[in-house]
Automatic annotation (TrEMBL):
InterPro entries: AA-permease/SLC12A_dom, Amino_acid_permease_CS. The chain crosses the membrane at residues 22-44, 50-68, 99-120, 126-146, 158-180, 200-226, 247-267, 287-312, 333-353, 359-384, 405-423, 429-448. Residues 21-428 form the Amino acid permease/ SLC12A domain. This is GABA permease.
Amino acid sequence: MAEQGSTTTPVSASGGLKNRHIAMIALGGIIGAGLFVGSSAAIATTGPGVLVAFLAVGLLVILVMRMLGELVVADPGRGSFVEYIREAHGNRAGFTAGWLYWFFWVVVLGSEAIAGALLVRDWVALPVWLLSLLLIVALKLINFAAPRIFGECEFWLSLIKVLSIVAFIGVALLYVLHVFGPGVPALHNFIGHGGFFPHGIVAVLAIIPTILFTMMGSEIATVAAAESSEPSKNVARVTRTIGTRVTLFYLFSVAMVLLVVPWTNIVPGKSPFVTAMDTMGIPGAGLFMRIVVLSAILSCLNSSMYITSRILTELAGRGDAPSSLARSNATTVPRMAVVVSSIVGALVAFSSILSPDTIFAFLLSCSGGVILVVYSMIVSAYLVTRRRAEKAGQAEGFNLPFFPVCNYVTLLAVALVFVAMSFNDAERMTALASLGTSIAFYGAACVWSRRS
């Protein structure tokens, strides 16, 4: 069992994160290049039915965030969600969840560094490896500063993405309503090329794992909230609304694309938003979207550096990582953890250059599905914690409807995602490698606990 009464002291509010930072960190953790560019492959594969996949994934994110929010509100000040998993399932589960989560985001850190370098290379004539290293160093310096500096950078980077989506939806709606432009057969574009499910419902189910990975990251805000003046209130506020907001952003923006241009015109790998803006005759669409995508990549890099350092520090504080990675006190920035995460992220980035088809591909496969395992642990931790609270007559803060059916359905949905991945040739290795990685980390937890 986990140690009772052990909590993680939040950073002092002085120099800490503000409410607007927390809100934008939550959005920034989810809305990334996966929407602006990666959604093209999903649209080309499934047609308009992709909206059903986005809705299904959005519901999953809403449920997980709701459960996580209630856990934090019921027992504030414990730390990140890893500590709630530890409290529910024991130290080994906490070790496993923390290291899996760190591993997932450190691979994202390296991957995004390469993506950003490839984008910047068109403007700056330097080698990709050097540009990726420079990006990591720049973000490391930002994370060396006070939390509010990180929050301010993330606020403006996320704001660029949010305003771009809102502006696109507004302009596209005016275009569809024939307020400007030559007019467009919106309904024909939407369902006139094979119907709503041109490739059948199976294609929609098969694309859910890919979409799922583009909508992960909202839980970052619950970690960041610990470094604000009112962590419990901020977590409650974010977890109640973030899932719904992000789902609506994805649904409305993709729906506008499908109304402006036929889904058959969407080319995988090319931003569907650029295609739609070119159709509407908006000048500079390509350059505009490159700037937006770059801001999305930098935002993801910034968040990855932040979350990996905080999780690593928390693990060190609980004895699950070397003590040198722990904070010296509650108000200091965990610089050693930032350095370690940035070095590992740089190594991941270099592996994509030196060995893209072996080492880097292996890392992507091992990390790709572990976030689903972590989400499952959050759901099960909620299940255990609420039952304990109800047994003790202290369940006032828990109000998730249809409990525990809702929890079991969520766990079943995650299991079905892994099943769908195993039947998909492109995703099968990711499913197997991710499950193998989860087992390996649990094995490491058992060995570590015996040594401790």
